[in-house]
Amino acid sequence: MRPDPFNPDRVPIDRPYEPVGPHYPLYDAETQSWSFGDDTPEEQEAPRRRIRWGRWIARGAGAGIILLVLAIIWLAVTAPLSRSLQPPTPPSITLTADDGTPIARRGAIIGAPVDAAKLPAHVREAFLAIEDRRFYSHWGIDPRGILRAAWHNVGSGGVREGGSTITQQLAKNAFLDSDRTAGRKIREAMIAFWLEAWLSKDEILSRYLSNVYFGDNVYGITAASKHYFGRTPDKLNIGQAAMLAGLVKAPSRLAPTANLKGARARQAVVVAAMEDAGFLTRREADAVQPQRVLASRPETLPSGTYFADWVLPEARDQAGEIKTEATVQTTLNPRLQRIAERTVRSAGLNQAQVALVAMRPDGRVVAMVGGKDYSKSPFNRATQARRQPGSAFKLFVYLAALRSGMTPDSTIEDEPVDIAGWKPRNSDGRYLGKITLRQAFARSSNVAAARLTQQVGVKAVIKAARDLGITTPIPNEATIGLGTSTVSLLELTAAYAAIANESYPVAARGLADVKEKGWYQSLTDRRTGFASAVHDGMLDLLSSSIKTGTGRQAMLTIDAFGKTGTTQDSRDALFVGFARDLVVGVWVGNDDNTPNPGLSGGGVPARIWRAFMQSALDIAPVPAPVVEEEVDPDAIANGMDEETIPTESDPVGDIIQGMGLDVKMGDDGSITVGPGRRRPDRAGPPPEDRRPPDEREGEEE
User: Fold this and answer.
1) Which of 188, 270, 483, 536 has the fewest CB atoms within 10 Å, i.e. is most exposed?
2) Which one, of 479, 467, 498, 469, lies nearest residue 567 by Cα?
3) Distance, CA of 46 to CA of 54 (rounded, Å)
4) What is the pTM of this model?
5) Distance between CA 380 and CA 374 in Å, rounded?
6) How many CB atoms lie under 10 A from the CB of residue 11?
7) Which amino acids are annotated catalytic?
8) Contact criterion met (CB below 8 Å) for 656 and 560
9) Alpha-carbon gap, residue 111 to 102, rounded angstroms
10) Which of 37-41, 52-56, 349-353, 449-453 has the lowest mean pLDDT?
11) Could you tell me whether strands 109-110 and 102-106 are parallel, antiparallel, or unpaired per DSSP bridges?
12) Three-state SS for 248?
């Protein structure tokens, strides 16, 4: 039987099998492989090489397809086409006062989107001539434009011209940052191809014109046309379209409101480019005149104020997602805001800073001053600063006492006390023994407040503060009764507003429209009314502070209620109170928390509070007492005539100078006579509190 030629076991390894015909296989002992006997070694290797290259080509094609799919997925996720319709910066929000008067604007001015196909031809052609003449013929990248720009840049010795197409500019503005790395240029090219594949040319041009920057914080041709020329894009003439197209190169530098000469020069360049591209004839180009723009308005709205900075986050939340300019009405009252700013300017504080908050009893903020000058320091001392309130915190101590069953006529010991090694003292060093709560509150006795805190319990005082809206940390220790914990002026003023509103808590707010609360928030944020006896007692105490206590310089011709506050070494001084439908808090101090010798809550802050209230409520000032002065005949004989005898009181210090004596008249009718001194400089530091010790407020030690 003939052996199987394909069975290697039947063929000797050292002698290959001799084929019978040309297609019989041949076994090669050296390579241990079979082949056809009539093939040469070169012919035997050729088919194997072709198969190997085919596999690599197939593998490469497969990898390319996978990379393409991944790139498409990446672009779909990181560069969705919808983003090219969104504005490149947050749109503008205009804040208005309670009467609708604009008071501040924040963010970019962004116009409505345009349809490039519906714009006049010369408007489209102005941008194409200067930015991308081959826009309708390339695929997002223009090699000719890149080479032309590179040639011009080499000839000029620097980067003078860019080769980016309109599609690339849209990709950069909508999807990328402004860095100039090679990686960003590659991503820009990929997104440009992506846009060209999915959008028509008119859609790309429309999105470009709707989002491009034109200077003056203005985005989009609609906003730019209105801002510079007071018209819509479809009404632009050739010169106006050319000027706008010219701004795209350097919008901040060429904005015609600040650089009309440069904008006109650039306009001429664009007109020449339109003629060179065949969009205009020589006659049409020569007929284009230099354009005028609307005069910049001197009453341009500020981008920031203390009140605007505070209310803007809430205003953005209320406006929700916006794509064009939005208007949000606030609670600010323009008249009261002007009065607040004028009052602060005339206070003569020198280096000391000041903050003032005025609100309605329900929490609507109607005026806010966060410092002497926003342009020098936008830090809002009314809302952002956390300072010790001093004796103004005693509001919560006495509220806890009245809640425990005490009344303004209840008595407390005004004597030194030792509480676990802590020995508070009255600043004037005087102790009156057993006094009523009314007297203790009026003279702001520190030892009485410490005894009350110990008597009603620290937790009761903390609960009273929390009920009235204080959210800042309060330590669980007896010293809190003297105002050692920190709080913002806004929050403290809102706490006093709760007394004026007869319910708590009162939350300060700056928007006219209040968002509807959810069911859970409605259940947890319900206001609670004071017990009648407690509320009447608090009004009694707050009134006594102004009538007979440390707050007498805040006295008005109408019923007024308030409390002074002074911290250790006179670092902070406050007066917070209310009259009619206004609740106002005033703080004075140094930003670096350094002492202000002689400063107290019953001094400068009380006078600022009184001056604001008199103007805001349009009430007459407290009449000064009539003093009949006798003229010393010896003084006249010694050279002093009647014209040198003072007859007017100083409006700041109520000080009468003359005859070697200073006579100070308080608004309550009290008169203090002291040795003569020079007239105080009204531009200097806060005047020293020169009241008798029993009239001064107790300082926290």
Assistant:
1) 536
2) 479
3) 13
4) 0.67
5) 9
6) 16
7) 131, 391
8) no
9) 19
10) 37-41
11) unpaired
12) coil
Torsion of CA 120, 126, 129, 131, to 10 degrees: -120
User: Are 589 and 573 in contact, with CB atoms under 8 Å apart?
Assistant: yes
Residue 639 has pLDDT above 50, yes or no: no
Omega within 30 of 0 (cis) for the link into 334: no
**Which residues, 6+ apart, have CB-to-CB distance to 145 below 8 Å?**
132, 134, 138, 163, 165
Residue with tokens 């004796």: 391
85 by DSSP, 3-state: which?
A: helix
Sign of CA dihedral 16, 17, 18, 21: negative
What is the C-alpha R_g of the chain? 41
537: Cβ contacts below 8 Å, ≥ 6 apart: 402, 407, 408
How far apart CA 108 and CA 94 sit, in angstroms, is 10
Rounded Cα distance, 131 and 146, in Å: 12
| Cα–Cα distance for residue pair 342/344, rounded to 1 Å | 5
**pLDDT confidence of 62, banded at 50, 70, 90?**
confident
CA–CA gap between residue 637 and residue 579 (Å, rounded):
51
Which distant-in-sequence residues (6+ apart) come within 8 Å of 379 by Cβ? Answer: 370, 371, 385, 591
* 554, two tokens: 């805040």
CA angle 432, 437, 440 (to 5 degrees): 45
- Quick one: which of 238, 1, 258 has its CA closest to 120? 238
What span, in angstroms and rounded, lies between the C-alpha atoms of 373 and 356? 13
Q: Which pLDDT band, with edges at 50, 70 and 90, does 322 fall under?
A: low
Residue with structure tokens 């290697």? 8
Separation of alpha carbons 36 and 385, rounded Å: 96
Per DSSP, 213 falls in state B
Nearest to 460 by CA among 533, 388, 404: 404
Picking from 249, 272, 282, 274, the residue whose alpha carbon sits closest to that of residue 122 is 274
Q: For 200-214, 253-267, 314-328, 561-575, which range has the lowest pLDDT when averaged over its residues? A: 314-328
* Angle subtended by helix axes 458-467 and 446-456, to nearest 10: 100
In sequence order, the 6+-apart residues with CB closer than 8 A to the CB of 428 are: 693, 694, 696, 698
Contact 619, 558 (CB under 8 A): yes
For the chain, first and last CA: distance in Å?
Answer: 124
Q: CB of 381 within 8 A of CB of 690?
A: no
Looking at per-residue pLDDT, the higher value among 488 and 92 belongs to 488
- 450, containing H or E segment: helix 446-456
What are the pLDDT digits (tens) for 69-96? 666 555 555 555 554 445 555 667 889 9
Which carries the bigger pLDDT value, residue 549 or residue 77?
549
Residue among 249, 169, 163, 164 at smallest CA distance from 205: 169
**CA neighbor of 650 nearest in space, from 621, 679, 627:** 679
Query: Residue 5, SS3?
Result: coil
Lookup: tokens for 226: 């209105």
Looking at the chain, the number of H-run helices and the number of E-run strands are 22, 19
Outline where DSSP puts E strands in 610-685.
655-658, 661-665, 671-675
pLDDT, tens digit (0-9, with 9 covering 90-100), for 182-231: 555 667 777 777 778 788 999 999 999 998 989 888 889 999 999 999 99
**Rounded percentage of the chain residues whose pLDDT exceeds 70:** 69
Q: Which residues of 38-63 are buried (b: 16+ CB within 10 A; e: fewer)?
A: eeeeeeeeeeeeeeeeeeeeeeeeee
3-state secondary structure (DSSP) of residue 485:
coil
Residue 609, CA distances (Å) to 87, 507, 553 in order: 45, 21, 9
Q: Outline where 476-580 has alpha helix (H).
A: 489-501, 519-524, 532-547
